[in-house]
């Protein structure tokens, strides 16, 4: 039995089905995914880091389909949105708009005790939601219970302000913690007990961060291959956050925003269309 060291430092045995599921989610047919999993198992040493497994699987997947190979890099691509958390806040706000929310970033909201700078204020038929985004650059770092308690305390302060003066302070129906890493068991337990909503990596099962992204192919532009980091940073700064944005954008609009050659624009558009299946 081969052993894998995860980014957190934990060890687990190699699980064929887990790898197959991850490959199928990014577009590989079941039989191709099973074949890749067998090849990964044959090529990996008896003890390997999850990064090594990821690289083997991505290389094999790209031989089958380049777009699927890029989609398989999703978790790593989200880390590439950094180093600050602001692009991740904008990224999640854009995701919410595709799920029927109106979402605005960086809002000042008056609480009962103090003012709060809220990362994202989202509104839909279910009410108005206070969303705090916790972005990590370190793939081995989980979001712990202290963060969940902090976000809930901020929501409670904002909720009390509405109770004191409903006319002045808008009603927030829920508080959310959104993170690009996993949450600790205690963080999840606290959230379920207190009513705090969590959107994180692998939790909840059906509405986790990666499920929301994959469900509507709302990949960040960081899954794509850019000529250099500067062009990627310019793309994010120009509010082209989603692959979807590039796929649907007019080439002249991309040229004005990124100041790149026609060949670069053609390549980016081609990648984007293959990744999200939209545009032309």
Low-confidence stretches: none
Q: What's the architecture of the largest domain in CATH terms?
A: 3-Layer(aba) Sandwich
Number of strand segments: 8
Question: What proportion of the residues is helical, as a percent range?
Answer: 40-55%
Structural class: alpha/beta
Distance between the termini: 47 Å
Classified by CATH, the class of the largest domain is Alpha Beta
The coarse overall form would be globular
What's the SSE blueprint?
Layout: E1 3-5, E2 11-13, H1 16-25, H2 30-43, E3 47-49, H3 50-64, H4 66-71, H5 74-79, H6 86-97, E4 102-110, E5 115-124, E6 127-134, H7 145-164, E7 174-179, H8 185-194, E8 197-199, H9 209-215, H10 229-237, H11 243-248, H12 251-258, H13 262-276
Parallel strand pairs: 1-3, 6-7, 7-8
Antiparallel strand pairs: 1-2, 4-5, 5-6
Helix pairs in contact: 1-2, 2-3, 7-8
């Amino acid at each position: 039995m081969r052993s894998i060291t995860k980014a957190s430092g934990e060890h687990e045995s190699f699980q064929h089905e887990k790898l197959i599921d991850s490959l199928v989610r990014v577009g590989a047919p079941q039989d191709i995914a099973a074949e890749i999993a067998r090849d990964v198992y044959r090529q990996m040493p008896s003890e390997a880091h999850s990064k090594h497994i990821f690289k083997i699987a991505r290389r094999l997947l790209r031989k089958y389909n380049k777009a699927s190979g890029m989609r398989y890099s999703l978790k790593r691509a989200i880390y590439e949105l950094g180093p600050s958390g602001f692009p991740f806040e904008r990224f999640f706000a854009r995701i919410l708009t595709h799920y029927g929310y109106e979402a605005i970033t960086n809002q000042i909201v008056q609480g009962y005790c103090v003012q709060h700078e809220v990362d994202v204020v989202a509104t839909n038929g279910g009410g108005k939601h206070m969303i705090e985004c916790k972005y990590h650059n370190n793939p081995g770092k989980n979001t712990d219970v202290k963060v969940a308690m902090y976000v809930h305390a901020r929501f409670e302060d904002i909720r009390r302000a509405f109770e004191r003066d409903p006319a002045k302070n808008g009603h927030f129906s829920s508080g959310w913690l959104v993170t690009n890493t996993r949450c600790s068991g205690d963080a999840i337990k606290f959230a379920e007990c207190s009513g705090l909503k969590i959107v994180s990596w692998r939790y909840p099962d059906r509405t986790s961060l990666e499920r929301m992204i994959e469900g509507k192919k709302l990949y960040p532009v960081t899954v794509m291959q850019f000529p250099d980091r500067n062009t990627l940073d310019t793309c994010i700064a120009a509010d082209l956050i989603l692959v979807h944005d590039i796929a649907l954008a007019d080439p002249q609009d991309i040229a004005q925003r990124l100041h790149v050659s026609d060949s670069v624009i053609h390549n980016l558009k081609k990648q984007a269309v293959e990744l999200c299946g939209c545009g032309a």
